[in-house]
Specification:
The protein is α/β, with parallel strands linked by helices. The protein has a six-stranded mixed β-sheet, sandwiched between helices. Strands 6-5-10 form a three-stranded antiparallel β-sheet, with no helix packed on it. Helix 2 packs parallel to helix 6 and helix 7 packs parallel to helix 11. The longest helix is centred in the C-terminal third of the chain and has 19 residues. The structure holds pyridoxal-5'-phosphate (PLP). Pyridoxal-5'-phosphate (PLP) binds next to helix 3. The site of pyridoxal-5'-phosphate (PLP) has 14 residues, from helix 3.
Length: about 350
């Protein structure tokens, strides 16, 4: 049997490990200079004013919503076709959380128009889309807040980690407090024992160990996206020849970051195709099981799949093929040849 090819994986080089070891020996393990260096590097790359790094993408989403101080009973609109982290919010609409699925930016101008008409806050979940662009501008410069994740399957990793990007100084200040229990001054900023807890926050802090990796990973992001684009182009070239496969469409107004490469298997064969690929040691996956199908949401909100016909159709046909920057040409060709031999 040939080697297993996962659907996605991280790439960490020796020089990055050396940097992490230096931080371990430095005496600053958390809330120190590497956190600020990583936040500054993110701002530099994206071109936004503020970045607040936290311990996961989920924490970043939670804090982004919390920072808006929405009245009890507020509702937030989001998509069911995403990772569960987006849906764990509720009850009168005050905000939209939109997801740049697979790394392709949404139709942001249209979403902005709706938000302006109805006075809604916008939170962009760009966990798939670090480095993606919309009308020539980097994602992270459109919504009130943009959320990133640094989980190992994402573009850059800190093991676990996330960040919130914003141009709004008040929101950034609030996010820094919420990250640290709602306390107004981090220990490093205190010249006495005095501090105040102004809000109910959490411990969502990220360590200097993680941010050291974040800084080194961010240096490779352009290489990583270019590799992903090359792989996507090769998949598109070959798989578009198969009449039972639908390849992903890409808008002309975006730079796609290709976190995921997904295809649609038409004619009801997705299940069978999934196990065919698995049997041949290819780590196919399914992104995502729609949130309304999970027992928690079904019980709590009485959701029914038949109310989401578009998502249901996509869910029944979609499959994720391997896509990561260290994937070799041979591995890409092996996946392509296997898909071709299915019928
Ligand atoms: C990964 C992911 C998250 C959650 O990020 P974590 O760092 O795993 O908490 C949220 N939304 C989307 C779309 C994701 O892909």
């Amino acid at each position: 049997m040939e080697d297993f090819i996962p659907y996605g994986t991280q790439k960490i080089d020796d020089n990055e490990i050396e940097e992490v070891v230096k931080t371990l020996k430095s005496g600053w393990l958390t809330s120190g200079p590497k956190v600020k260096e990583f936040e500054d590097a993110l701002c530099g790359y994206i071109g936004c004013k503020y970045a607040v790094a936290v311990n996961s993408g989920t924490s970043a989403l939670d804090m982004a919503v919390k920072s808006l101080d929405l009245p009890a009973g507020s509702e937030v609109i989001t998509t069911p076709f995403t990772f569960v982290a987006d849906s764990n919010l509720t009850e009168k609409t005050k905000a939209i959380i939109y997801v740049d699925y697979a790394g392709q930016p949404c139709r942001i101008n249209e979403i902005k128009k709706i938000a302006e008409e109805h006075c809604l806050f916008l939170i962009e979940d760009a966990c798939h889309a670090v480095g993606a662009e919309y009308n020539g501008k980097k994602i992270g410069n459109f919504a009130d807040m943009t959320v990133l994740s640094f989980h190992p399957v994402k573009h850059i990793t800190t093991g676990e980690g996330g960040a919130i990007l914003s141009d709004n100084e008040d929101l950034a200040k609030k996010l820094r407090m919420l990250r640290n229990h709602g306390i107004d001054k981090a220990p490093a900023d205190r010249d006495s024992w005095v501090y105040d807890m102004k809000d109910l926050g959490r411990n969502y802090r990220i360590t200097d160990i993680q941010c050291t990796l974040g800084v080194t990973q961010l240096k490779k992001i352009e290489w990583s996206i270019e590799r992903r684009q090359t792989i996507a182009k090769r998949y598109n070239e070959e798989l578009s020849k198969l009449n039972w496969v639908k390849i992903p469409s890409t808008s002309d107004s975006v730079r796609h970051a290709w976190h995921l490469y997904t295809i649609l298997i038409e004619n009801g064969n997705r299940e069978d195709f999934f196990y065919y690929m698995k049997k041949n040691n290819i780590g196919v996956n399914l992104h995502y099981i729609p949130s309304y199908r999970f027992s928690y949401y079904r019980k709590k909100f009485n959701f029914f799949p038949k109310d989401y016909p578009v998502t249901e159709k996509v869910f029944s046909e979609i499959i994720t093929l391997p896509m990561y920057p260290s994937m070799t040409e041979e591995q890409v060709e092996r996946v392509i040849n296997l898909v071709k031999r299915y019928k």
